[in-house]
Amino acid sequence: MSVTVLQNFIDGEFVNSVNTGQYIDSHNPATGKVHVKIPDSTKADVNNAVEAAQAAFKTWSKLPRTRRSNFLYRIADILESRLKEFAEAEVRDQGKTITFATNVDINRSVYNFRYFAGHVLHAEEKVGQLDGVAMSYVQRWPVGVAGLISPWNLPLYLLTWKIAPCIASGNTCVCKPSEFTSLTAYMLCSVFKEAGLPNGVVNMVFGSGQSAGEALVTHPNVPLISFTGGTVTGKHIMASSVKHMKKLSLELGGKNANIIFDDCNFEQAVETSIRSSFWNQGEICLCGSRIFVQETIYQKFLDAFIPKARDLVVGDPNDSKTFVGALNNLKHMEKVLMYIDLARQEGGVIECGGSRKILQGELSEGYFVEPTVITGLPPTSRVAQEEIFGPVVTVHPFTDEQQAIDYANDSPYGLSCSVWSENDRRARRVSESIQVGTVWVNCWLIRDLRMPFGGTKASGLGREGADYSMDFFTELKTICLANF
């Protein structure tokens, strides 16, 4: 397959990087072969993009919300008409299965634009009246140029999750996708052009985090940064942003608990735990990588869960029968395998998996890892505490409700948790005691975009979704009128 060479998208045009001829190789995770070259953009490229976004902001911010909404609806329609093309590109670029790319990544990207196209039309603000004295009301206005930095695990999905509310609320933006997965972001720029989005409203600068990302985060004319990625990088962005007092939205790592009580719907808990453990190769920040099972059904759970994990099809991401595709990049695969070795050193038992999966033919150099289930480790072990972000789970027994809560909360992260119990009072007690941003009871990964999404502790700062995203991308002003 030929190698695709990307260009930056600045002021409505595809342009070469100022750093002409310098590219970063991006590999197809399923084959290990270079399939995309992305510009190794510099501070000068970011400066050009910010200038274009600043110029566009002057008119875009004053455009009536109905017209901004129409642009978002048009983008959604065009993206949906190219769903198959985008899904296939996401598979080549990220390593995920075609089923997941189609049903989750691209479908939800379309919905992100449609949702915020509608939400911006129906946003309401507070009005208060002091009888005979004054009336006060809230005015909301866009902030300016936003820096949007997206990760490699759900590339288009999480990029559009930022772009849609950003431009719906009247801001313009400079985006920096992950250097590992830039292809669908590049393709999205052609959607913007076809939709007639005014030049400079969305700009795309490709490159490394150390160069392009750092330039964007520290740019004095970018007053807000929305970042999804690792906790270490998130802390660096916080430190780098202090000088300019930037607004920050940081959606960071997770090490999520999956708590299974003995009064659960057992079959449903097992089936959903397979998905929450190994969907998208475990490369979802919301995956339930720490499974806590009440000791009365612990062995029963293992007897049901391990064979299902062992039987999952690891293979060609383009095959609809494949459940586990390739990990995104070589360095990440090596990290995942290192944690499996660490589990052995810590005294864990590898119940299934535990190795790189070597396939045949053109997939022989792909970054595949077997679904791995580990028992015998204390909840305080490194493997049970640190984010692995791969098809690896640890399973631990617990005695009672309080111990399950203690285990779940004993983590530097606080993104999400699942609770399985048919006792409604218990499920509510436990849910309200877990220190995370989202708790799913008897389900997993059901998303209502009206609800706040984000984490506590090392899992992030701020919330996204509906009004919460709009609050981040706007400023609020109280106007008080006397003699009302």
What is the C-alpha radius of gyration, as a whole number of Å? 23 Å
Mean pLDDT, nearest integer?
A: 98
Q: Would you count the extended β strands for me? A: 23
Overall CATH architecture of the largest domain: 3-Layer(aba) Sandwich
User: In oligomeric terms, what are we looking at?
Assistant: single chain
Separation, N- and C-terminal Cα atoms: 70 Å
Domain Aldehyde dehydrogenase: 22-479
Organism: Ambispora gerdemannii
Keywords: NAD, Oxidoreductase
GO molecular function, one term: oxidoreductase activity, acting on the aldehyde or oxo group of donors, NAD or NADP as acceptor
List keywords for this structure.
single chain, 484 residues, alpha/beta, Aldehyde Dehydrogenase, Chain A, domain 1, Aldehyde Dehydrogenase, Chain A, domain 2, 2 domains, seven-stranded mixed β-sheet, six-stranded mixed β-sheet, 23 strands
Outline the structure in words.
By secondary structure, the chain is of the alpha/beta class. It folds into 2 domains: 4-252 and 459-480, Aldehyde Dehydrogenase, Chain A, domain 1; 257-450, Aldehyde Dehydrogenase, Chain A, domain 2 (3-Layer(aba) Sandwich). Helices cover 40% and strands 21% of the residues. It has helices at 43-60, 65-81, 83-94, 98-122, 155-168, 183-195, 209-217, 231-241, 266-278, 298-311, 330-345, 382-385, 401-409, 424-433, 466-472, and strands spanning 4-5, 8-10, 13-15, 23-27, 34-39, 127-130, 134-142, 145-149, 172-176, 202-204, 224-228, 247-251, 257-260, 290-294, 349-352, 372-375, 392-398, 413-414, 416-420, 438-441, 456-457, 460-461, 474-482. The strands form 6 sheets. The protein has a 7-stranded mixed beta sheet, sandwiched between helices. Strand 19, helix 14 and strand 20 form a beta-alpha-beta unit. Helix 9 crosses helix 10. The radius of gyration is 23 Å and the shape is globular. The mean pLDDT is 98.
